[in-house]
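Can you make up a protein sequence with its backbone structure tokens?

===
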Amino acid sequence: MFDINNILRENIKNLVPYSSARDEFKGEASIYLDANENAFGSPLDKAYNRYPDPMQYQVKMRLSEIKGVPARNIFLGNGSDEAIDILFRSFCNPGVDNVILVPPTYGMYEVSANINDVEARKVPLTEEYQLNVEGISEAIDKNTKLIFICSPNNPTGNSINRDDIETLLANFSGIIVVDEAYINFSRQKTFIQELTEYANLVVMQTLSKAWGLAGLRVGMAFASEEIIEVMNKVKPPYNINEASQQLALQALQNTDLVNLWIKELLAERDKLVLKLKDFDFVLDIYPSDANFILVKTTDAKGIYNFLVGYGIIVRDRSKVELCQGSLRITVGTPDENQKLLETLQLYK
């Protein structure tokens, strides 16, 4: 049975969070003399002299409308990477606790574990890129605090079997993080709908992929109110800057355009897969629920270097476990995809 107090670090239980000027006053005022800001403005066309909303209320309310989740169940971070790091700092005692990773997967889970001096226990995916549930269960001990599952998975592109994730959620006393950075491109439904069912579930999403806002660095975590309260207590007071909040809010009004892009991208992905299969050096193309494809080739490094020579950059994943000989190729615009295919025709 999940009890947040059983896995929360003692120092975090007793932590008194920093109280900012904007935490202490709610509402609007005509004169702000509380935060030592520059009252004259900013040397820009738009003024950014005031500190941003520390809890990003307007952005969360708009996300609440889109996602169907109460704002109190939403955490916003400086990219999903901040949410990952805060989970480590909140629940994992350095040098004592461990987390479980299921490679091949997103590399920042392991980087954050190393930064926080937390053991990362690896239970590789199966040959079909699915969870080894039995292996994960055997790797869990009393100090296992987090399990990270990326679905659709990066770099493989496939969605993880939903029943396997639910089996772990029902039987693990720590937190399971389901990273859905690519969920907008997937046929699978989001795990956000399961938040009321599983108190130990954290779902991460991002505005970096389908929403095209990678440069703004806005990541999302959805979880129970008690987990979100912990994350808000640990985060820096003003972790999302004012420009990112304003632009994110503006972008979140354009759902129709984003949905149109997603539809076009998925059509381009299907066309790209069909064309790539014609090349002799392509051995396999794995099914994808993301905006990229994993392509197994006869010479990943050689093809990568060849494309670099023409100014085309893909990702060589050939040194990643279970991805030997593979390139990860992001689906581009129709023109970009065509240029890629024309260039590959020159490869010998």
In short: The mean pLDDT is 97. The CA atoms of residues 176 and 201 lie 5 Å apart. The two ends are 58 Å apart (CA to CA). The domain at 256-344 is CATH 3.90.1150.10 (Aspartate Aminotransferase, domain 1).
